[in-house]
Amino acid sequence: xxxxxxxxxxGGTSSKAAIYDTSGHEIAKATYYTKMLTPHRYWTERDMExxxxxxxxxxxxxxxLADIDPKDIVGISITGHGNGLYLIGExxxxxxxxxxxxxxxxxxxxxxxxxxxxxxxxxRPIIYSTIWAAQPPALLKWLDENEPDxxxxxxxxxxxxDLVRYWLTGQASFDRSNAAGSCLLDxxxxxxxxxxxxxxxxxxxxxxxxxxxxxxxxxxxxxxxAARETGLRPGIPVAGGMMDIAASxxxxxxxxxxxxxxxxxxxxxxxxxxxxxxxTSGIQMTMPYAVPGEYLLSTNSPTSASNLEWFIDxxxxxxxxxxxxxxxxxxxxxxxxxxxxxxxxxxxxxxxYPYIFGSNASVENASSGFIGxxxxxxxAEFLRAIYEGVCFAHMTHxxxxxxxxxxxxKENPVRMAGGATNSKVWVQMFADMFQQDVELVDVKExxxxxxxxxxxxxxxxxxxxxxxxxxxxxxxxxxxxxxxRGAVYAKKYxxxxxxxxxxxxxxxxxxxxxxx
Length: 516
Hints:
The chain is α+β, with helices and mostly antiparallel strands. Helix content is 41%, strand content 19%.
């Protein structure tokens, strides 16, 4: 009898369910979308019932497309965007809209916390991470100050994968990778950091936190009600789950030290494993990894490939429509890549700040924009600036990691995933900037594959994660760097960093300006 594993991944605007065999081959996948709600500046939210329904639809559709007996699905795991906030009341009621990880309403609260010297001396050595605006502590504090009635209505505080697991199993728990990645976990004890809750002024919320669970633990089984809604078999075990960056790490076969993994999507993710943890500010997020005894160390920001999508949607929709009408097999992304390739990096002085969702890496209140454009600047140069700017944003993070672990770009190829890896031009640009080989894994959806790997270990299909990754993760190509191009990008990168420093005061002035 064939055995199958299901991974469920909820991003900021989509929900995906995918089914895999035990060799890592995707059998079927279904994706449904929710609308991002932006009722106020800096807010990004979603409707909770809409979210539940698209998860049900994605699971139903994946089973239908796979054309398998649901009884052959032996394990499920769930991942989702890190951070944000999802509150549930009594009997599963919705307290308010869910909050997505691109939300920035609490940035002033975070700026005040980080300006306090006690953050580095007292808080960081407990949580080994840097707080930022879309994380639960900041959002809970913001709710206390702006929506105080929410506390009494809340029974459970969830991250998105904890919420979906609750819908499937009826059991409330909170994955430790989520807790650590959200600045809620004491890394030394593995329990909620009560001292940190106190310092943030949110101690009362400890009573709303569900029991903690490890990623590969059994987090409950599919209930009869959930089975009726989704088409799953009642009793399928559901793993504790993990934050999306951890799932991406598994999907890239990240099980050993000194291997750098990079993910390009809405968020730029940069991560590696170690059995030691560091409280340096260069490490933005530290969490227990699925591999026992290992920690995932990362630094990340919402400054990656979605910048291109934003530009296309806002400034190239006419060309997208034209390409749709012309049956030449060329997508808008092929068109963009051709334009970028038509301009040599040394021939363009246009820089792009890839901060459409802000930045928690360079300047807290940074915004997006171009610099260096003239009346003669072409669309190709604007696009090249976007491609390069995204790469530069990734490099700022990698430099932070290199200060902690200088071996990351020296000993092993970089494993990459995400939207930018669909572009040969873009991947070559990354390799040239890294001056290291880039390995691309044969995977369509990193989050769901990582979940399937975890579900396989939980269900006993594999004895450990190293074995599971060897069986389910496959490298499809290797991109080698160009040394000459690398030298050009290194000079442009230094200019990019200087421009950010010089722009910081302007961003602050724009943020504080009032024209009423």
